[in-house]
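Task card 7
Instruction: Convert sequence to structure tokens.
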Amino acid sequence: MANKYRGEIEAELGSIKRTLVLTLGALAELESAFGADDLVALTERIGSGRLKALDLIRIIGAGLRGAGEAIGDDEVGRLAVDGGAQGYVRIAAALIAATFGDEP
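Output:
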């Protein structure tokens, strides 16, 4: 069960309900993946509204790993989500909103 007070969300990925959370370590992982110098640059990059499929994989993967799931980005990219591309966008948006305190 996801705890919204810890920034956790629950999403169905690959037909399994999973918890995702962007811990400090997961955010550091995303800073590195996106070449962001700091959290402000990371939020600007994510908030630009111009995310590639690889960006969505990285965000969702970091959220899964932040919640303790040992999963690589290649495997994340193969997980099916209801709603197709919009489903991935919805999950990433909810995770970002939970992390930075905005309701999706």
